Amino acid sequence: MSEAKREPLFHISKRTEISWQKALLIRVIAIALALGASAIICLLLTDDDPLAIYSTIIKGTFGTPRKTWVTFRDVAMLLCISLAVTPAFKMRFWNIGGEGQTLMGCLASASCMILLRDVLPNWALILVMLLTSMLAGAIWGSIPALFKAKWNTNETLFTLMMNYVATQLVAYFCIFWESPKGSGKIGIINQRSQIGWLPKVADQQYLLNIIVVGVLVLLMFLYLYYTKHGYEISVVGESQRTARYVGIKVEWVIIRTMLISGAICGLAGFLLTAGSDHTLTTTLVDGRGFTAVMVSWLAKFNPFVMIFTSFLLVFLDRGAGEVSSKFGLNQSFADIITGVILFFIIGCEFFINYQVHFNHHKKEKTASAAVSGEGN
Description:
Number of helices: 14
Distance between the termini: 11 Å
Number of strands: 2
Largest sheet: 2 strands, antiparallel
Radius of gyration: 25 Å
Shape: globular
């Protein structure tokens, strides 16, 4: 009697393609499961109604006109930094330095607002702030790119460490320009004169930031998908050896791409300093440089999809904060709910990229073959 060959219960294979309808269905199911799991956690750990908590999350994001505008402002700033790091990620250059590059843009803008406020007219000062912020970000981004291109250093560690250098530089100038003396803070820069502040559009303080980032989304999409530079980035990301074979100067593409990424991070720093916060602190970027990594990856480097992933993360963050304050819960509980939802959303990407095949049909066929063999 021959022993039937044992096979695993299932095996996993990479999908060659998947329709957008099926991918959307997988994401909808993941969100439904996330909300269900969060509801169970709410019932187990608290006596609060899960529906009331979900309602509070929505009200924390869109409860008042001001909350709505602040939400869109935060989405725009996160989206801007995500767009900045995307060209490097698509090239498989792991730029974890978006935080520091944006901080350098903030520092450049604040420096101009303080040092040139009595020298230049407002329109000229804003233009100088824009140019110096983008230049500062570009220089900060080009340093690890140069070392990567020339000496093949580890860009992940290099860009990560430069975040700390940028933070300490900002900390130094916060003490150097502190106002009032001894406070350790700069405070609102040019609060009375508002020199160096971006103008309001339609009587809304943050609308100009949102418009600028909206235009940037379109430009980045065109740059990545319809230009020679975007093509070179894709080829270098797929294989540097292939890129060299077809005549692409890989080292120059790395440096050029990081110059662009750094410059856009500098633009984000300019918008933060001149358009929304009007100050300089070490926490001004608020971790967006690291969150941008998740935004870009979830969107698969598509600028238009990043709009939705940025909104999702800001929605969860602002909603979780509202839950903590309204229900008297600590921030850890809000972080748990946010983490559970993100776990399901990120996890669903596995089922979009891979397919699980169960082998029960093969087992039935094997068993049938074994039975027929014994009958003979």
